[in-house]
Amino acid sequence: MNREFTLDASRRERTGLDEAIFCAGKSLAQIEAILAHAESAGRRLLLTRLAPADHAALPAERTAGLDYDPVSRTAILGSVDPPADVAAGSEPRAGVVTAGSSDIPVAREAARTLLYDGHPCREIHDVGVAGLWRLLDRLDEIRSFDVVIAVAGMEAALASVLGGLVPGAIIAVPTSTGYGVAAGGETALRAALTSCAPGVTVVNIDNGYGAACAAARILNARPR
Fold first, then answer.
1. Are 116 and 216 in contact (CB under 8 A)?
2. What is the C-alpha to C-alpha distance for residues 205 and 153, in angstroms, rounded to an integer?
3. What is the pLDDT of residues 45-99, one digit of tens each?
4. CA dihedral in degrees (185, 128, 212, 182; nearest 10)?
5. Same domain, 184 and 115
6. Of the chain's two ends, which shows fewer C-beta atoms within 10 Å, N or C?
């Protein structure tokens, strides 16, 4: 049979992370075929950038097994329950922190990816530096995380501020939020890359998925 895709079934064995399906640019027929193949093989699957209109256009037999979140445009095929080795009521080791509410779609992509990978996280929103007291009110909570994903547009100052205040790994996600010379996130990206806070890791613009994968690698290397 001639297929237009080949799923990477052994990626988790090699890297500790499953393959994700980037849906933007794929046809509905391709997405449907990928889902059908994964279901027949009994595989879990993470889909990213699955637009609400595309999700709605998929046949009911394909969407029945999907946990879909329209804010992050992610879908999970298979279980979304916390892994068995995460004790009930245990504190999450990762936090996803946003500068503003406009950054939530990117942050939610990161949070959903972490959930899929077995790392429940806590989301803390709207603590950007323009109202620094909001961040300081949550600082003790943020300091408890082993990994902090800092999601911010505009000038992306949040990651630098956190980099000077918290001991955990900081992963900056510049977003395309902002006016004019924010240039679709390029200003935020450059600001994050030139952060004076040492040790801040930076992923590409709006790449919540990539930030979560970086966080998962750190957490996998430091088991609970």
1. no
2. 9
3. 999 999 999 999 999 988 888 999 999 999 999 877 665 555 556 788 999 999 9
4. 0
5. yes
6. N
